[in-house]
Write a structure and sequence with these properties.
Helix content: 10-25%
Number of helices: 4
Largest sheet: 16 strands, antiparallel, barrel
Radius of gyration: 37 Å
Order of helices and strands: HHHEEEEEEEHEEEEEEEEEEE
Structural class: mainly beta
Length: 505
């Protein structure tokens, strides 16, 4: 009891000294009080009566001196280090209790954005023409394919989703034309996004992202649709937080454009011509590790049902149609300690999407770079670029099952180089040059009946844009896309003037 009393007495003294010291310090900062008015003197008081003599006090009792045995048995009072250690132990138990209480209920963060735009397409808003009649551009394909189309279906892009102004009404295919403006200028609610992030554990985060697209309905039906583009759990094992394991529907690891595929993250409005190959969100498992000093080396690998292509393109399997899985990976290096430059190489290999077997492969590989420079006046200049190649044999021979319909691909080359300059914190400019040289077909052209259709693309594009940042929640963007054809393909009137107002929350 005495030991505990001494310990708490010393602790109380230390706390009292700290309080008095703080009060004295605070008192030294208080300005002097104003002078009080002088009051009149009090009247004289009557004299006090003479004091009464007190009886002499008794002799005090002398306490017995402690013995040597008692002095040896008494413990020394606790030191400041002992008290500090006890306070640290109390604080650790308090932190542990707080962590347990926090983990009992997930902390959910709600966010998202609204993307509203206006676009003006050139011509009919369609990016391809049909190669037919006596003036065929490629007559050598007349006996191999039932239909041949020239150009790029997604070249007249109007928003960050990569949707074209119109897909046209061509024979031999039943497409879902989500915009279908038929060449008319139009306002459009591009996307309404809702994102949920929940801390399901101390080192695990669950993320879901849902997009709502208001579109035109027909024949008493509602044209609005929705998609889930993210549904993942990120687990960071260990204490460093340098390794993450993703399970679910996650971002691609091919290239770099997946980082700004959303309109809130993209500097401009539209994606590149090769974004359709790299910005999809596959379903599977992914691992990413950051290595070295300042995390200057990043390795990412994924195993998924299908490829990293976008869902609206010819190649994508969310629910796999074959037993094989697609492997992808990326290695990036920052040669300098700062974020001045990043170089990366990535690739993907697996069974063809929409194939019922795993005998033929779909593959991509490419290189990419990112560079960042701070400019005078609080601005910045970013350069990003990517080069990509890929291929798939498609269908070989007559299919045993009519549902076996993998597309063939020869992506001879594709790439872009983009400059994003924020001249002021509120004003930025964009310039991007890009190219896509590819052949895509459905069916086997060497079979007896030939293949169904062929798309021949020799497309280049020059995009110029402006960006105005009103505040951290509001951005206004505009772009002009000039699309051009080469390699013998006639020029198609498919330029687009488009804009976007992005409101994030």
């Amino acid at each position: 009891m005495r030991r505990a009393a001494r310990r708490w007495n010393l602790l109380a003294c230390l706390l009292l000294i700290r309080v008095l010291g703080g009060a004295a310090h605070a008192q030294s900062d208080v300005p002097p009080a104003p002078e009080l008015p002088v009051l009149p003197p009090f009247p004289a008081l009557p004299p006090l009566p003479p004091p009464v003599e007190a009886e002499p006090a008794a002799e005090p009792v002398q306490a017995a001196a402690p013995t040597a045995e008692a002095l040896d048995a008494a413990e020394p009072p606790p030191t400041v280090e002992d008290l500090q250690r006890q306070m640290n132990e109390l604080q650790a138990r308090l932190d542990q209790t707080r962590e347990i209480a926090t983990l009992r209920r997930p902390i959910v963060t709600v966010g998202g954005y609204v993307d509203f735009g206006f676009f003006v397409p050139q011509g009919t808003g369609v990016g391809v023409i049909q190669d037919q009649g006596p003036s065929r551009v490629f007559p050598q394909y007349a006996n191999k394919y039932a239909w041949v189309f020239l150009g790029d279906l997604l070249a007249p892009t109007v928003n960050s989703r990569g949707e074209a102004a119109s897909l046209g009404n061509f024979p031999g295919v039943n497409r879902f034309d989500s915009v279908d403006s038929t060449g008319a200028p139009s306002f459009i609610a591009n996307e309404v996004n809702l994102r949920l992030d929940a801390a399901v554990a101390r080192n695990a985060i669950a993320t879901a992202s849902v997009n709502f697209m208001p579109r035109t309905g027909r024949d008493f039906s509602i044209g609005d649709f929705m998609e889930v583009d993210l549904a993942q759990v990120e687990w960071m094992p260990g204490t460093t937080g340098r390794t993450s394991i993703f399970v679910g529907k996650f971002e691609s690891v091919v290239g770099i454009e997946y980082r700004d595929r959303k309109s809130t993250e993209r500097f401009g409005v539209t994606p590149s011509l090769i974004a359709r190959y790299t910005t999809g969100t596959p379903l599977g498992i992914k691992v990413r590790s950051k290595l070295g000093e300042s995390e200057r080396v990043v390795i990412a690998a994924a195993l998924a049902n299908g490829s990293s292509t976008t869902e609206q393109f010819h190649f994508y399997d969310e629910i796999d149609s074959n037993a094989g899985k697609t492997a992808s990976g990326r290695l990036s290096v920052r040669p300098f300690p700062s974020d001045l430059l990043e170089l990366g190489v990535s690739g993907e290999w697996g069974p063809q999407d929409h194939a019922l077997d795993s005998t033929q492969d779909l593959w991509f590989w490419g290189i990419d770079l990112l560079a960042h420079v701070t400019t005078p006046g609080g601005g910045s200049l970013d350069m990003k670029g990517q080069f990509l190649k890929g291929g798939a044999p498609g269908q070989i021979g007559a299919p045993a099952d009519p549902n076996h319909e993998p597309y063939g691909l020869k992506l001879h080359y594709g790439g872009y180089l983009e400059l994003d300059w924020m001249a002021l914190p509120e004003l930025g400019f964009l310039l991007r040059g890009e190219v896509r040289d590819a052949d895509i077909w459905l069916g086997d052209p060497n079979s007896l009946g030939g293949a169904e259709r062929l798309y021949i693309t020799r497309e280049w594009r020059l995009t110029a844009g402006v960006r105005v940042v009103v505040n951290q929640h509001v951005a206004i963007k505009g772009e002009y896309l000039h699309n051009g054809e080469y390699g013998g393909i006639p020029q198609i009137p498919n330029d687009v003037l488009t804009s976007s107002l992005v409101l994030s929350y």
